[in-house]
Design goal:
Strand content: 15-25%
Number of strands: 21
CATH class of the domain at 224-392: Alpha Beta
CATH superfamily of the domain at 224-392: P-loop containing nucleotide triphosphate hydrolases
InterPro entries: G_OBG, GTP-bd, GTP-bd_Obg/CgtA, GTP-bd_prot_GTP1/OBG_C_sf, GTP1-OBG_CS, GTP1_OBG_dom, GTP1_OBG_dom_sf, OBG_GTPase
Cofactor: Mg(2+)
Largest sheet: 6 strands, mixed
Organism: Fistulifera solaris
Bound molecules: guanosine-5'-triphosphate, magnesium ion
Helix content: 25-40%
CATH topology of the domain at 224-392: Rossmann fold
Family: Belongs to the TRAFAC class OBG-HflX-like GTPase superfamily. OBG GTPase family.
CATH architecture of the domain at 224-392: 3-Layer(aba) Sandwich
Distance between the termini: 24 Å
Pfam family, one: MMR_HSR1
Number of helices: 15
Length: about 575
């Protein structure tokens, strides 16, 4: 038998009552959830991509590189609080002893310097931390769930996808950013005891964990960012100066993902070099996928501009790239540059070396211009030691910008208790209340417990929602929807609506009881939970408490939860005791 609600105390001022009626989902979707549907459509290509199907984003060059990703994160839900009563030999009317639920795990991003792409985030789109365990009797709190850690490379910038607001940036190894907080555990009935109410029959459900889409972008953090036309020799230089082994070939766009290398300059820390794919004219507008790469050099302290000496017009190349930089971002264009004339081992370049160096100095407006051969490593170590001194002389890198959005809150911690009442003239008598705070309260309400429903009603009143509804013309019996719950509006309710099946159940208990009295079976005569204000725990379909009978329903073993293993010394009661 399934009783969803029993409310018996005759003069309870219950405000709302759960009904068994369900609104049709099509209606709810068409009128109220349009935004959500849109969002799902928008991101469904993420799933297609995951399954290797043709993605509609194929024409989006940024997606070909593992430096942007979308991630859906959800914190675990808190465990439910429990309703239980202490029952000991000689003390049958023990106090409430329902423990609190454990809190759900949170999702963190953690900076890991051994990573340099967001590739793994492309394979894992949904990250969900585990739920907290439910509280159990004997004041035992449920276990808290472990946090879930997602590792990301240094230079990871995190935004909330829908608003594009900056949530934070991970730069140093081990740094963590909380992106979806787990919900707190619901309180057990022990927490609701007051002097007046010594046997509270309500508990909270666990708070749902926070859940959101993130947009994640990688900006490599390096001391020196390489810059130059395709085929200029950037990767060759990285290979010459560090242990990195990037792909090198005599065709443009050999490099398609940024490469990092560390050059040992004898200072212990090393100089972090970042080789990016070549840039061409129009890069700032995305030509040659420029925009995707320019982002990487944003975080470099110094730019190393590699000029190909064998090019038809090396000085013009240099000017073109600098113009692209300016177009893309003024901030980037202002970064200090060191310029190298590469491939001076080639005789034709050697011939015009002095002339080219002079023109480059003029075009650059400074004298940090060096001839180098990345292929023969001529002048490379001098270049590196001068670079390292130049980097050290730079002012400290700009601090990460201040976060614009705080993702460290879950559920009820959101600041705003704003709500909105939506009604559609096409559906008279139906009201949807939306608001983070009230939705969280609804989710945490244990609708099976009359006292919890009553508490919810008081919360609605306290938030001014009930009077606002009345003011807008809501009438007794109107349908109120909050999140996935729906109720009947009962503004001045003193006699709670009692579902017919409960009256039937009571009748059944009553007749059983009468029969028992007749047959002198006293025990059975007591089974009148409805009349006595008793109630069932719908999860286990167990009666868990009586009103003021001097006998308490015994807690079944499985009320401790599936994973409760009695420890030594624990007293476990069974109903057969
Ligand atoms: N002779 C000579 N050839 C060089 C030198 N540096 C690079 N090269 C050659 O130039 C070609 C391109 O070199 P890469 O290092 O792949 O050039 P890149 O700038 O990384 O090119 P992209 O990744 O396509 O932007 C290769 O064939 C290299 O061997 C050099 O100093 N002298
Ligand atoms: Mg390259």
């Amino acid at each position: 038998m399934m009783l969803s609600l029993v409310l018996m105390v005759p003069d309870t001022h219950a405000f709302v009552v759960v009904t068994t009626k369900r609104i049709t989902r099509t209606f709810a979707t068409s009128v109220f959830d349009a935004d959500k549907v849109d969002l799902q459509k928008k991101y469904s290509d993420t799933f297609r991509r995951k399954n290797g199907k043709n993605s509609s984003n194929n024409d989006d060059p940024e997606w070909k590189f593992f430096d942007t990703a979308r991630l859906h994160v959800s914190g675990g839900d808190g465990g439910n609080g429990s309703v239980a009563f202490r029952r000991e030999k000689g003390a049958p009317l023990g106090g409430p002893s329902g423990g609190r639920g454990g809190s759900g795990g949170s999702v963190y991003l953690e900076c890991d310097e051994s990573l340099n792409t967001l590739m793994m985030l492309r394979q894992k789109i949904h990250v969900r931390a585990a739920n907290g365990k439910n509280g159990i009797g004997k004041n035992k709190d449920g276990q808290c769930a472990d946090d879930t850690i997602v590792r990301v490379p240094p230079g990871t910038v995190v935004r909330e996808l829908t608003t594009q607001k900056l949530a934070g940036e991970l730069r140093t190894h081990g740094e963590r950013l909380l992106v979806a907080k787990g919900g707190r555990g619901g309180r057990g009935n022990a927490a609701f005891m007051t002097q007046r109410r010594t046997a509270p029959k309500l508990a909270e459900r666990g708070e749902p964990g926070a859940s959101r889409w993130l947009s994640i972008e990688l900006r490599l953090v390096a001391d020196v960012g390489f810059l130059g036309m395709p085929n200029a020799g950037k990767s060759t230089l990285l290979a010459a100066a560090s242990a990195a082994r990037p792909k090198i070939a005599n065709y443009p766009f050999t490099t398609i993902v940024p490469n990092l290398g560390v050059c040992d300059v004898g200072d212990g820390a090393g100089l972090v070099l970042c080789d990016i794919p070549g840039l061409i004219e129009g890069a700032s507008e995305g030509a040659g996928m420029g925009g995707a790469f320019l982002r990487h050099v944003q975080r470099c302290k110094v730019l190393l501009h590699v000029v190909d000496g064998t090019s038809e017009d090396p000085v013009q190349d240099f000017i073109t790239i600098n113009n692209e930089l300016k177009q893309y971002d003024d901030f980037l264009a202002q970064k200090p540059q060191v310029v190298i004339l590469n491939k001076v081992d080639v005789p034709e370049v050697k011939e015009k070396e002095e002339e080219l160096l002079q023109s480059l100095r003029e075009a650059a407006g400074h004298s940090r211009v060096l001839p180098v051969s990345a292929a023969t490593t001529e002048n490379v170590s001098q270049l590196m030691s001068r670079l390292s001194k130049f980097v050290a002389a730079q002012p400290k890198p700009d601090l990460p910008p201040l976060p614009e959005v705080d993702l460290s809150k879950a559920g009820l911690e959101y600041d705003s208790d704003d709500y909105e009442i939506i009604s559609d003239p096409a559906y008279p008598g139906q009201w949807r209340i939306s608001g983070q705070h009230i939705e969280q309260i609804a989710k945490m309400t244990h609708w099976e417990y009359p006292e919890a429903v009553e508490r919810f009603g008081r919360q609605l009143e306290a938030l001014g929602i009930s009077s606002e509804l009345s003011r807008r013309g809501a009438e007794d019996g109107d349908l109120i929807m909050i999140d996935k719950y729906d109720f009947e509006f009962s503004p001045n309710l003193t006699n709670p609506y009692i579902p017919p099946e409960l009256i039937e159940a009571e009748e059944m208990f009553a007749s059983k009881s009468r029969a028992a009295v007749k047959n002198d079976e006293e025990d059975d005569a007591l089974w009148r939970p409805f009349q006595e204000g008793g109630f069932l725990d719908v999860d286990t379909e167990e009666l868990v408490g009586f009103g003021d009978l001097d006998d308490w329903m015994l807690l079944e073993d499985d009320e401790f939860g599936d994973d409760y293993i009695p420890e030594e010394g624990d007293e476990v009661w069974t109903s057969n005791e």
